[in-house]
Amino acid sequence: MVRLLVPLLLLVLFGCQQTREPIALDELAASARSGDTGALEQLVGLLGEQGERTNDRVYSLILEIGKEAIPALLPAVSDSDRIKREYVIAALGNLKATTAIPVITEVLENARFGRRYIAAWALGEIGGDAAVAPLIRVLGDPEIEVRKYATRSLIKLNRLAVTPLIDFLRQARQPLAAAAAIRALGDIADQAAFEVLLQHLDSANRADVVTALGKLKDPRAVDALVAVLHDPAWQVRMNAATALGPIGSKQQAAELETLLEDEVNVVREWAARSLEMMTGRRYTYRNEAGEYVKPYNIYH
């Protein structure tokens, strides 16, 4: 009988705790809103609690409290508890806490920490000039997610990042870092990047360069794009054919028409699509079944 009662008692106690927890959190949040720093620190401490999604509820409460929560969050940025650390960094990112940039940068650059891409994401959310340099420094990071989120954040920072990215790319020696900078400049699409992108057209990243030049929509890029239409790498040929569509003219049609019989299907397809954009005429290309068809409209 005792054996049966103990688990039942635990279930009752556990059930009571589950019923009381949301009320306790609300009371704690109310105290924090009223200026109780101890209550605010307690809330931040609970960001590492995963049971019954406590950390999710606490996270929402902290965001509701707003910028007043920043001082209590800052000391926990480098917390050894990964879950807590990630919630803290995410909160600081959403709260646009510029004072958090130095400590978030330390996490971003500390290879001992896992999932550092969250720090890269947060810097993009916070924004400002101070966020640019740390993001550029990790464009060559060994972890692909760090590189990816750093690139996305730089794109989000937009024109603030253009000149620093151009300066970085002029000196970049690491192909991975250069590729990330090229992609960021392409997506930002500021024509100030034209010259530095052109300088990398013969590099190992030329497929990315061709795409970036196309995104600038700068007519000065037309000759460079035509020059790589017959590159040995099919990705380069495809990207060049794609890029010519919005900025090319009937003058380049003859060169691009030669790709309608390219050995790679997607190259043929994009050549036909861009030719239509450049000339206003409908073109067909040979699909993988050997049939001559019109490219489908990607904008529908």
Describe this protein's structure:
The chain is an all-alpha fold and 300 residues long. The protein folds into 3 domains: 23-95, no CATH class; 102-216, Leucine-rich Repeat Variant, CATH 1.25.10; 229-300, no CATH class. Helices cover 64% and strands 1% of the residues. The chain contains 17 helices and 2 strands. A two-stranded antiparallel ribbon has the order 1-2. A hairpin with a 5-residue loop joins strand 1 and strand 2. Helix 13 (206-216) runs parallel beside helix 15 (234-247) and helix 15 packs parallel to helix 17.
Q: CATH topology of the largest domain, which one?
A: Leucine-rich Repeat Variant
Gross CATH architecture of the largest domain: Alpha Horseshoe
| CATH homologous superfamily grouping of the largest domain | Leucine-rich Repeat Variant
Distance between the termini: 70 Å
Main structural class: mainly alpha
The portion of residues assigned to helices is 55-70%
Compute the average pLDDT.
Answer: 91
Q: What's the structural domain tally?
A: 3
- The radius of gyration over CA amounts to 27 Å
Sheet with most strands: 2 strands, antiparallel
Number of strands: 2
**What is the name of the CATH class of the largest domain?**
Mainly Alpha
**Largest sheet, order of strands side by side?**
1-2
Poorly predicted spans = 1-23
Which percent band covers the strand fraction? under 5%
Count of separate DSSP helical elements: 17
What's the overall geometry? elongated
Order of helices and strands: HHHHHHHHHHHHHHHHHEE
